[in-house]
Structures are given as structure tokens and as C-alpha cells.
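2024-03-11 09:14:02 INFO receiving multi-entity request
2024-03-11 09:14:02 INFO entity count = two
2024-03-11 09:14:03 INFO echoing inputs for audit
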Amino acid sequence: MTKAVIAVVGRDAVGIIAKVSNICAECKVNILDISQTVLHDYFSMIMIVDITAINLPFPDFVDRMNALGQENGLQIHTMHENIFNSMHRI
Amino acid sequence: MFDTSDILETISMIRDEKLDIRTITMGISLFDCRDENDARLAEKIYEKIVRHAEKLVETGSEIEKIYGIPIIHRRVAVTPISLVAGGATKDGMVNIARALDRAAKNIGINFIGGYGALVQKGFTAGSRTLIESIPEALSSTERVCSSVNVASTKTGINMDAVVRMGQIVKETAAATANSGSIGCAKLVIFANVPDDNPFMAGAFHGCGEPETVINVGVSGPGVVSSAIRRAGECDLTALAEVIKKTAFKITRVGQLVAREASERLNVPFGIVDLSLAPTPEIGDSVAGILEEMGLEKCGGAGSTAALAMLNDAVKKGGVMASSHVGGLSGAFIPVSEDALMIERAQEGVLSIEKLEAMTAVCSVGLDMIAVPGDTTAEVISGVIADEISIGVINNKTTAVRLIPAVGYHEGEMVDFGGLLGRAPVMSLRTSSPAKFLRRGGRIPAPIHSLRN
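2024-03-11 09:21:47 INFO inference complete, emitting structure
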């Protein structure tokens, strides 16, 4: 299984998770885990997803998430799991 | 599964603390381009670089996107041109520089390194011609970088080369006088030059390197500064641990990117260079790290000790994180590319003499320092000789990249624009070493026992 992390930060609004999940579903990206908090109107979410069956090149998926972030005033970081494995595991 | 705090730490390193991969540099051997006809040689060189590196920029962008880590530069380093173009005329050499420039432009990179010569023991006809051509080559191209190795611990110092390079620096400054003498920012004079350095302006593809290779330079002064700030009041042993752990994480990213680039381009992985390279951006400063460690101002008393500890801890942390470490590997202190160094130099706290002392404990040397335009070639050669001897005696790489900016005086600011930053013109002592230099010859290689 190949995984990626989608981290979303921004002002809280209705439907943020729905919008991110929608793109995941369209791209055949399976959500494995979500953790989210709202602190002082600020929304932060970390989503772990399975990109094994993704139906477009991963960089294009990153572009779609970036576009979504720009449209909604959110910072969305979409990153392949290997960067976390490299930095935090020996 | 991942730990949330690890994920947030990585994202904040990239977003807030300016962690990035400074450069993916592809080394390309040009030995098989040899040709007795200068024009044909230049054409073959152009063609080979474009053929091997045409996907470099695109590949870098893909990796950048997949891992969400900025990769600032993609660059190419080639076999020193003096070795490939041994029989060329001066015009032929300049023509090759232009071919390198065109190739760099075609594949979309901002610098290409390797217009250089290795003359630590003496000149060949080819290296002499190349050195003579440097002012014209650097003034008639935009992206070509030049380096000349004038000394090594094994051979000693070629003082004839030191003398000539002082003059070449002046001639290059004059040839690019209308743009702040920017040519000198693309010319480095080395001792003990490494064969696999991915950083410009000193990168070239050494003789023992494979046909092509991928070397990666990591960065992250901002990340180290922040980690030290978070560590708060702790003793220096604990601080060294903090720096080591941070360097480990930074280097692991470098290793990941290097491996990925090597696989995608089908080019062997060479090394990761563990350098802390500052940028003119606020918060991405090596001087900032030293001040975060506890100095009131970088350049004051304690600077050399703090830098020595920083440099050593970065290496210790980084070495374990990468399968192959090489290049320059240490903290850089290029004045014009470090916002806080610029400030301290303007305040008069940071002097060239202190910088020289600091280069004894870090990579790489007197780097990107603007000096008055009327500085004589002899004084520049004297500065080169001083800095180079630090490298030769201490068995390390040192280098000089001085910019005697034509028309500028002490205290003024030379603006090179972009990543080369802006440099305050610093004062140099003007007493002449001319008689010492006129003696010429070689300073013998140092003894390596009886060390003191």
C-alpha cells in the first residue's frame, strides 16, 4: 500500500472535509484515517490516504488539492508518505 | 501510522522554517567530446549536456510536488574545461563557455559549473589558456561558473597561480563593471577542491567521477535556528544534540530526493552535501543560528567557537542520515547571501579578518565578499594566499570569492539581484604584499606530523 498525507489548515467553514473527500473519491484515493481539530476558529485536519489505486499521476492530484486550497482560502499540503518515513524513522 | 506531531513538524519545517533542497546537480563527463577542432568540440559539449540533462528540471519539479519540499535549483557540473579542451585557443575556450551558457539556457537551469582548471602544482598549456580566457568567458555569458584550484595539502600552493588569479579577478571585475562586477560572483579560487561539490560557483565534475552522477545539496539554516530556539536554556552538550538531530532530519530529506532523482533520471547517485547554505531571505541565515546560540552579534567574540560547534554537529548528524556524504559539507558563510551577515558587516561588527578566522572551522571560505573597486590585484592575491593557506595547512577545502566592485567604495552596497543577494563593500587592509608575491614559485606542501 502506498500512502500520502493531506494536511489542511485554515479558517473553519462548512464542508471542508466534504470538499477534500470528494476529490479523493473522484481520484480513487481511499481515506484511511482522519484527525481534525478546531481551535479558535482555525480548522486543522490531517488525513492519511491510500494512493495505490489513484487514477491520475500523483503530482496532478497535488495540483487539484492546491487549487482547492486556493479557492477556499486553505493551506493544503499533500505529500507522499516517504518524506515522513525518511525524516522520522531510522 | 504516522504520528501527528511528526507530520506537523515536517510541514512547519517546510512552510515556516524554509527547509528546502538547495540543489540537484547533475555531473556530466565531457571526456568523450574531445575534438581537435574547437568549434566542433563546443558543439559536442552542447549536445551532450542537453542530451543528458534535458529532463533534469522537469524531474526536479515532479519530486518537489510529490514530497511537498521545495527544490530551489537544478544545475549541471561538467569536467573542467581545461582538461577537455587542452589544445584549444583562447577564442576556442570562450566559444565553449558560450556553448555551456546556451546548453544551460536550453535545459532551463540558472548556473552551470566546470569552466575551470586544476593548477595546484603548475600550469598546463590548456589550463593557462583557460585561465586567461576567464574574464571574457564570464563577461560574455550569463550562467557559466568558473573555478580554479590553486593549491592542495599534498602539493602545496602554486603561488604563480595565486598571483595570476588576483589579476584575473580584477580583470573580470573590470569586464563586468556595468553590472556591479558580477562576473567575480561566478569565479572561485580553491584549495583542496572537492570533485563532487553540487554547489555553485565551485561545482565541477571530477576526473574520478562516473559518466554522469546526481549530487544533492541540502539546506536549512532556518530549521536549525528554530530548533535551537525551541531548546531554550540548555547547555552546549544538549545544544549539540539538538543540532545533530535536526541535521539528521534535514539530510534524510536530501537522501530521499537524491535517490528519487537518481532513479527517475537513471543516473547513479553520488553524494549528499551536508551544507547549511543561507539565502538572503529573513530567517534563513547562518549568522542567525550563531546568534540564536547565544552571541549578541555574529562577528563578535565567540563567533568562531559557535561556528566550529555548529559545523561539527551538522556533520555528525548528517553523516548517519545519508549513505554517501561528500562535497563541501559544512556551514557556508557567504556574506551577500545571508541577510544577517550583511547587517553585521554594515554595523562593522563582522570584519573580513573575523570571517577569515571563521573559515578555519567551517566550509568554505571568504565567500561573496565585496571589497572596494580600487583594491589592487596584489592585495587580492594576498587575501587568496592567506585563505588558501588555511585550507592547505588544515587539510580542508577553502576558497575565495571576492568582488572588487568597480566604482564602489567602502560602506556602499552592491546589489547583484536574485539569489546572489547584495553585498556591503567591506574594508581591506591595503598594505602591499607585492614583494612577497613577486617571488613566485610554490609554497611547499606542509608536514603532517608535529602538528601544532
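2024-03-11 09:21:48 INFO post-check: The first strand of chain B starts at residue 21 and ends at 28.
2024-03-11 09:21:48 INFO post-check: Chain B is about 45% helix and 15% strand.
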